[in-house]
Amino acid sequence: GFLKRVQTGDKGVRPLSLAGHVGFDSLPDQLVNKSICQGFCFNILCIGETGIGKSTLMDTLFNTNFENFESSHFEPQVKLRAQTYDLQESNVRLRLTVVNTVGFGDQMNKQESYQPVVDYIDRQFESYLQEELKIKRSLHNYHDSRVHACLYFISPSGHSLKSLDLVTMKKLDSKVNIIPVIAKADTISKSELHKFKIKIMSELVSNGVQIYQFPLDDETVAKVNTTMNGHLPFAVVGSTEEVSVGNKMVKARQYPWGVVQVENENHCDFVKLREMLICVNMEDLREQTHTRHYELYRRCKLEEMGFKDTGPESKPVSLQQTYEAKRQEFLVELQKREDEMRQMFVQRVKEKESELKEAERELQSRFEQLKRLHADEKAALEEKKRLLDEDQSSFSKRRAAAQLLQAQSLTANGKKDKDRKK
Amino acid sequence: MILPLTDISKQDTRTLCLQMSFIQGTDLFGYVGIEAVLDQMRSKTMKAGFEFNIMVVGQSGLGKSTLVNTLFKSKVSRKSCTPNYEEKISKTVKLHTVSHVIEEKGVKMKLTVIDTPGFGDQINNENCWEPILKYVNEQYEKYLREELHVNRKRRIPDSRVHCCIYFLPATGHRLRPIDVEFLKRLGKIVSIVPIIAKADTLTIEERQEFKERIRQDLAANGIHVYPQKEYDEDPEERILNDRIRESIPFAVVGTDKEHQVNGNKVLGRKTKWGIIEVENVAHCEFANLRDLLIRSHLQDLKDVTHNIHYETYRVRRLNESNMDFSELGLSTWLLENGTADKWESESHL
């Protein structure tokens, strides 16, 4: 804590002894009472294959029945489902959000499976960051949706981690506190489990995956946390059904060959998980999320946007200068985009116009063509008519001539006849 | 009671949250261990320690240093402890900061006392509040800068003034112009607790009348002192704070000397006509002040400073600098990098 710094020579700060009871020893209580009034937030993300027991474990952990849906194995893409509940134990109110992956590990191609999870986590950080950077903000009323703990469910194969597991955990280890658990641990024998745990931990180490370590800096919990760190990953069994064992009803899974008791530490590590996750380290998980993971996200995000604390000659840059510079850049960019859009628009209009003109021209030429065709036909027809007329008139002439001849020949014949008769 | 499932229509449909359901007051069927979080929080805050910054303002000779020493039962301020100390009247108001680490039952606190010698001591006291105003705002500025850093400290050092004790001389009349000016201006940016200093010069009736007139003057001038009515968060708090508001300003007497009274050692001022027991509520209201400041409202003083006064300062500063990050584009960044196709579709005419 900061007091250590103070005592080793922060100038001007001396320790002072009190001559009597002042009363500020009530400070932690004052703080705690305020928190009780406000309530606590805790958000757990469960990643695991469909059917591995995520919902059952959550029900068992929180001793309640959350709404559960059986998911299909045919989701085309990994999705996340978030559900928020208000729980209360004595005077502590907890707003618990449980986020489950849907369809994780079901696809043929799992290359992008981790992406929706990363996106979800980042989105919650983003949301908080936006609130923090608002001018009028309301941080102490803000519903913190950042993921405080990520339970990664490992299939109880007994052999080793799957490559999907390693890839996913590697992508998440700098963003969230990862607590790996071995699911459905009642399918593994004790000796196999021991070997399995060792294998998993060594694979995590050799792949550089940073999982959440239970904190050792507080003497009150250092001892129990050290022991627990040695039991990772926890092998859990979940069940909300009760079976009578001896003269008690206990949460258990009943098989023909025996009863696996959830809260029996010889049977599985469920109690250890509950101890660590809730009773001992909930506050630390929340603190790490805020002071480590969120700060990292914030730092990266601001740096991406071009903000930095020191300028080119390592002189401290005021945020206002950086902001102004960024703003100028942004406005220039905006202007450029606007110009581009306008240009594109103008271009399109031109194109359309020329298209239309072209079409008009075509239409016009067709019209001309048709007109000519029509004129030609008309001329042809007229020609025909003229010929026909000529024909007709020549025929008429010939007929007239023929008639005349006939008439003439008749009269000539008549004369001849008269002549003969004489 | 189960409320119906609600869609998050705010969120982008391309995302991944399908639904948010809300179940209120779910009963737990058995032990979970959630209440252990209180102990976790307690042990973490104890380990980290607390900071508290208190400013004392008033003319010289009103007993500021003595009061602070009495409040914290230690020689926080050396002034009153050196014999034959002669107060040098400084020409201007010069703020003087001293920090100590005190510990009680495992709870460590870094206490910083900001003294304001010279306030109200000049012949011409116009604008004597300005150095104080400047100091208070400077601390807010310091905190704001650190908060806006890209690389920030895990715990931002807090030098903001959590509480300002304003010493009213026990004239018995009303607020003086200098009081009104100071309280009006500083009351807007810091939590002020006014007290009647050296109250052993007033009888109980005089004290009551004086207090009543002061309260009237405060109301008439629109001055809001701590605890401010508008920040009461729930009815319980309102009741508690109303009681406090009815008895401010506290009439206090300070001392670090102990005397024997009825076989007990008590803190008191010995006079020819009796011993004024500082911690006796029948004699003066020191104990009320101490309980308010330290035993019940210390955390609240810090919270009001952080959630209200600091935020007000921050809003003003960011508006002044025209810094609106949402304008800059956290959201446009998302637009650029998340939805390139949105841009595409806009350009199809």
UniProtKB/TrEMBL annotation, chain A:
<dbReference type="InterPro" id="IPR030379">
    <property type="entry name" value="G_SEPTIN_dom"/>
</dbReference>
<comment type="similarity">
    <text>Belongs to the TRAFAC class TrmE-Era-EngA-EngB-Septin-like GTPase superfamily. Septin GTPase family.</text>
</comment>
<dbReference type="Pfam" id="PF00735">
    <property type="entry name" value="Septin"/>
</dbReference>
<feature type="domain" description="Septin-type G">
    <location>
        <begin position="38"/>
        <end position="304"/>
    </location>
</feature>
<dbReference type="GO" id="GO:0005525">
    <property type="term" value="F:GTP binding"/>
</dbReference>
<keyword id="KW-0342">GTP-binding</keyword>
<dbReference type="InterPro" id="IPR027417">
    <property type="entry name" value="P-loop_NTPase"/>
</dbReference>
<dbReference type="InterPro" id="IPR016491">
    <property type="entry name" value="Septin"/>
</dbReference>
<keyword id="KW-0547">Nucleotide-binding</keyword>
<keyword id="KW-0175">Coiled coil</keyword>
<protein>
    <recommendedName>
        <fullName>Septin</fullName>
    </recommendedName>
</protein>
<feature type="coiled-coil region">
    <location>
        <begin position="342"/>
        <end position="390"/>
    </location>
</feature>
Automatic annotation (TrEMBL), chain B:
<dbReference type="Pfam" id="PF00735">
    <property type="entry name" value="Septin"/>
</dbReference>
<dbReference type="InterPro" id="IPR016491">
    <property type="entry name" value="Septin"/>
</dbReference>
<keyword id="KW-0963">Cytoplasm</keyword>
<keyword id="KW-0131">Cell cycle</keyword>
<dbReference type="InterPro" id="IPR027417">
    <property type="entry name" value="P-loop_NTPase"/>
</dbReference>
<dbReference type="InterPro" id="IPR030379">
    <property type="entry name" value="G_SEPTIN_dom"/>
</dbReference>
<dbReference type="GO" id="GO:0005856">
    <property type="term" value="C:cytoskeleton"/>
</dbReference>
<comment type="similarity">
    <text>Belongs to the TRAFAC class TrmE-Era-EngA-EngB-Septin-like GTPase superfamily. Septin GTPase family.</text>
</comment>
<keyword id="KW-0342">GTP-binding</keyword>
<dbReference type="GO" id="GO:0005525">
    <property type="term" value="F:GTP binding"/>
</dbReference>
<keyword id="KW-0206">Cytoskeleton</keyword>
<keyword id="KW-0547">Nucleotide-binding</keyword>
<dbReference type="GO" id="GO:0051301">
    <property type="term" value="P:cell division"/>
</dbReference>
<dbReference type="InterPro" id="IPR005225">
    <property type="entry name" value="Small_GTP-bd"/>
</dbReference>
<protein>
    <recommendedName>
        <fullName>Septin-type G domain-containing protein</fullName>
    </recommendedName>
</protein>
<feature type="domain" description="Septin-type G">
    <location>
        <begin position="48"/>
        <end position="320"/>
    </location>
</feature>
<keyword id="KW-0132">Cell division</keyword>
